[in-house]
Amino acid sequence: MPELPEVETVKNTLKNFIVNKRIVDIRVNYPRIIENDLDQFKRAVVGQLITDLDRVGKYLIFVLEDTAFVSHLRMEGKYNILTKPEFSKHDHIIFYLDDGTYLSYNDTRKFGRMVLSSKSDYKNQLPLSKLGPEPFCADAKVVYQRIHKSDIPIKHLLLDQTIMAGIGNIYANEICFAMGINPFTPGKRLTLKRVEQLVQASCKILEAAIAQGGTTIHSFSANGIDGLFQVSLQVHLQKECKICHSEIIKEKIKGRSTYYCPKCQRRKS
DNA sequence: AAAAGGCCCTGGTCGC
DNA sequence: TGCGACCAGGGCCTTT
After folding, report:
1. Whole-number Å distance, CA A109 to C1' C3?
2. What is the model's pLDDT at position A31?
3. In chain A, residues 93 through 122 whose Cβ sits under 7 angstroms from any atom of nucleic acid strand C
4. Which residues of A are catalytic?
5. CA at A76, C1' at C1: how many angstroms apart?
6. Which nucleotide comes closest to A152 if you measure CA to C1'?
């Protein structure tokens, strides 16, 4: 699933293909993706020049001449540039561009969403307004204030986009592993110093993933720009700990698969 | 009010 | 081989 680093890569790659191109038409095969009234969305978007592409957390923002719309890829959303109008089963939204190419939003599970926002103020409008800072600009003291009385497991808190934005299930597992912290550890067990380390570890892991994406994806693959699952995972989906060779435990937290090493991330009583 | 649970979706995998 | 059951899960909504 695309998390902050994957969306960053999609943004950087896609930018080269669509900025300064005009949306001349749009075809919507699966309307539920678009949260606005469909006609309203079409009226707002068709005829508009794409002036920029931005990212906040896991959200992608298409900045147009007079408006903007926010896109969340959720689990399997992808953007493809097609040079011929040969659309496939899961191409749900197709933007016709003025150079004759097609920007297609492809999403097998149909979980992704798009919603109109404001060109100048999208960061202060829903859904972006409720997001916390990205780890890169998070103040550890503020994060500490948010979690230091909480009984909620730290892994769950890392997934709370209102505390810090951009971390999904894969990186939450990786961050806990890098910290040597048990994912079930309640937020209130972390000292300020530990929270500082947590923010730092989050930055480091996300930055490394972005760097890998930046060097590995220069153009569209046959499958579209869908992120960097080649990122070397230390614990997520792993069977054996890369450090101590213990068997990696898999359990659910907040309904999400949680991987951890019982020895390197020992539970403290 | 906070927290837990359900929902949306399809393709892949598993067991029989 | 066929087929049903189950799993993956981000964010939003409903229920407790």
Report:
1. 21
2. 95
3. 109, 111
4. 2-3, 58, 256
5. 30
6. B3
Structure tokens at A14: 């896609």
What integer is the mean pLDDT of A29-58?
A: 96
Give the CATH number, domain containing residue A25. 3.20.190.10
Asked whether residue A146 falls in the same domain as residue A255, the answer is yes
- Provide, rounded to the nearest whole percent, the portion of chain A with pLDDT above 90: 81
Position A219 scores a pLDDT of 47
What range defines the domain where residue A214 resides? 135-260
CB count within 10 Å of CB A191 equals: 10
**Predicted TM-score (pTM) above 0.85:** yes
DSSP states of A66-85 as a string? S-EEEEE-TTT-EEEEESSS
CB A172 within 8 A of CB A158: yes
Residue after which a domain boundary falls, among A113, A130, A147 = A130
pLDDT value, residue A1: 75
Say what the pLDDT of residue A48 is: 98
Spatial separation of the C-alpha atoms in residues A164 and A133, rounded to whole Å: 5
Sheet (strand A102-106) strand order: A23-28, A91-97, A102-106, A78-82
Q: How far is the CA of A181 from the C1' of C4 (A)?
A: 40
Residue-averaged pLDDT of chain A: 90
Instruction: Say if A203 falls within a structural domain.
Output: yes
Shared-domain flag, residues A123 and A140: no
Name the domain count of chain A. Answer: 2
The answer to whether residues A105 and A167 belong to one domain is no
pLDDT for A215 beyond 80: no
Q: Are residues A112 and A175 in the same domain?
A: no
